[in-house]
Amino acid sequence: MHSVIRQNLWDGVHFDGGIDATLNGLTNIVALTKGGVPIVLPAAHVSLQEQRAEATTNFTWQADPALTIEGGLRYEISRLKQSGDSNLTRVLNYFKPRIKASYKYDSENTFRLLLTREAGQLNFNNFVTHH
Hints:
Blueprint lengths: L1 E9 L2 E17 L2 E3 L2 E3 L5 E20 L2 E18 L3 E17 L5 E7 L15
Antiparallel strand pairs: 1-2, 2-5, 3-4, 5-6, 6-7, 7-8
């Protein structure tokens, strides 16, 4: 699910906001035998579910025709639930601020400054045994 709102607040200032939600899942079954004899493995049969949501806000200010300043904040929360041979729940959350300034020096040159905090996406293979 993805939802966005855009609003022109006043001359030269714009607001964007949105919400993004995702549901991811993985079921994993692993078996091992040695000489025909089954070996018991920890967490050999697990299901992993992630509920993730991200809220975003962004303000853009066109200070003058050559200078644009953007500032924003994203907040991401992920709830991971593992069930099966072992049951675990973990909640991860991150604030991700961002500021960007662009200055158009002339028709051929633009200077940009970007400061941001990023958080990478989860790899389910880090949470379950895989083959």
